Amino acid sequence: xxxxxxxxxxxxxxxxTNVESHxxxxxxxxxxxxxEAQATIRAKIDAAKAQHEQNMQKIAxxxxxxxxxxxxxxxxxxxxxxxxxxxxxxxxxEHRADKAESYAVAAIEFAAAATAEADLATLEAIxxxxxxxxxxxxx
Length: 139
Hints:
Helix 1 (about 5-30) runs parallel beside helix 4 (about 90-139) and helix 2 runs antiparallel to helix 4. The radius of gyration is 22 Å and the shape is elongated. The protein has one domain (about 5-139). It has helices at about 5-30, 40-75, 80-85, 90-139. The chain has 4 helices and no strands. It is mainly α.
């Protein structure tokens, strides 16, 4: 494979590994939640909210990139691409490849941000359940 493809694949592998690592941490939080005190859960929620706020711009940028690429893909016609290949219009083919790579990166970034949001939602759900149980016990 070309050096550019190898680098692109390596970047995607690193990003997917980061997503997998984050999901593993979310799973560990869920397993540990029943044993943790409400104050600990609240601290985790605050940290997750701070991270979520930092991710909001990345989410918006990724979503815009994804939507832009969807529109571009609709506009592309297979015959046009075949024509570029036949006519050896390398710059157009490279531009298309660059856009496809950017789309893949944005999709992974969006997935990573979504896992952070899922983490926050999970912690908030656990905190809500703890509050409900606490109220039930004190009633």
